[in-house]
Amino acid sequence: MEFSFLSVNLGGIAIKRLIILITALALTVSPAHAATKKPTPTPTAKVVAKSTAKPSISKKPVVKKKVVVKKKKKRKKITLSPSPRAAWPPVGFKANGEVYAKIPNAKELIGAASNSKSLTRQLAQKIDGVAICEKYSCGAVQVASLNGCTWWEITGKIVGALSPDDKTLKVFGAIRTTVGESAPKQITTILLISQELLMQKHAVANISAICHHDAPNEKVPGTTYSTSSN
What we know:
Layout: E1 2-3, E2 94-96, E3 99-102, H1 106-114, H2 117-124, E4 126-127, E5 130-131, H3 132-135, E6 136-145, E7 151-161, E8 169-179, E9 188-197, E10 203-212, E11 222-227
Antiparallel strand pairs: 1-10, 2-3, 3-6, 4-5, 6-9, 7-8, 7-10, 8-11
């Protein structure tokens, strides 16, 4: 099954301490001396300290707080319904015999990646510190088969203008990607990664998807990219 697709770019604060020294000055007072007559003794009154009774402190009665018993709310049972089965044939897919294929948009690709660890890993790859599909031109295709496949073979071409001034389209290279087995009616999202810089605004086109039912005679999965000699 073959169809064309022009890819969308998937793309210390130093802290100072101030120490204040406080010096206590000793004040000296010199005693005054004066010649005085001998004092005559004068009668003094004795002061008797009387003890007073301590005032009695009456204790306030302790008021016991009422313990409020909270009633436990019964939790509502939540019944989980099974996920609805995917519609078949899948919406928006083109059919060719038992094979169905579709070019996903950016939102659909993100949704697919959230459910696929392998696709997430692919998109998270970095080249020179840049996400792979922000450096190179990438494409993607979603495939499914009524009867399932032993392995998939996806091919595509990288096309673009000859130069900013010459808009004549040229084929710059070809991508071939293989992926493993898929179950009947299982939708698989496949990423096509070229080696053409994204800034050149090239795109993945003429994508072809082949569902194989025989055992592969090569290592699967795998990706090869070949540049065009023309």
